[in-house]
Amino acid sequence: MSYSRKDNPYEAPKKYWSEAEAKVKIAAYCAYQERCQMEVRNKLHERGIYGEKAEDLIADMISEGFLNEERFAQAFVRGKYRLKKWGRNRIVQELKFKQISANCIKSGLKEINPEEYWEILLRETEKKLRMVKESDEFRKKHKTFQYLMSKGFEQDLIQSALEELI
User: Fold this and answer.
1) Interval 39-81: pLDDT, tens
2) Which of 76, 146, 137 lies closest to 104 in space, CA to CA?
3) CB atoms within 10 A of CB 127
4) Which residues contact 15 (CB under 8 A, 6 or more apart)?
5) Which pLDDT does position 11 carry in this prediction?
6) Three-state SS annotation for the chain
7) Is 57 exposed, middle or buried (0-12, 13-18, 19+ CB in 10 A)?
8) What is the pLDDT of residue 40?
9) Whole-prediction pTM value?
10) Of 11-15, 34-38, 49-53, which gets the smallest average pLDDT?
11) Class of domain 114-165
12) What is the spatial distance between Cα 153 and Cα 142, in angstroms, rounded to a whole number?
């Protein structure tokens, strides 16, 4: 029988936090790395804090500077595009999933240097072209194109990169 992670009877239940304990723990959680409101809200829900109490704690974290969605979006964009080599589309999709506002997303995307973005796309294209073991040139290009689309790069940029390299 298979259990989902939440229903696993062998996993010890999470300890619920008191309000005072929650404020200290959430401050530490936010100080460790940039977080968005959704992540903090989910953490509070895991620990048994819901509704107005959770929203008050989030408001406290914002007023004390522990939580800032614009700062989160900028850090998220920097990390995903430099380390994970994601394209703009994938980054925007993930930020929307985390319920980040359009203004914060726009601010975060300013972290992307167009020249560096193009170089990353070229390197990823080159790497994938070397990895694809297809004798048919069309299929090789198609597989590379699909891979780069899944990483979130724009269709026109992928076409340009493929034309430049092939």
Assistant:
1) 999 999 999 999 999 999 999 999 999 999 999 999 999 999 9
2) 76
3) 13
4) 47
5) 59
6) CCCCCCCCCCCCCCCCCCHHHHHHHHHHHHHHCCCCHHHHHHHHHHCCCCHHHHHHHHHHHHHCCCCCHHHHHHHHHHHHHHCCCCCHHHHHHHHHHCCCCHHHHHHHHCCCCHHHHHHHHHHHHHHHHHHCCCCCHHHHHHHHHHHHHHCCCCHHHHHHHHHHHC
7) buried
8) 96
9) 0.86
10) 11-15
11) mainly alpha
12) 14
In tens, the pLDDT along 124-143 reads 999 999 999 988 999 999 99
CA–CA distances in Å: residue 44 to residues 77, 88, 135, 144: 25, 30, 53, 41
Rounded distance between C-alpha atoms, residue 91 and residue 153, angstroms = 10
Domain ranges for the chain: 19-63, 69-109, 114-165
Other Cβ atoms within 10 Å of 30 Cβ, number: 23
CA distance 13 to 8: 10
The per-residue pLDDT of the chain, averaged, comes to: 92
Structure tokens at 145: 């194109």
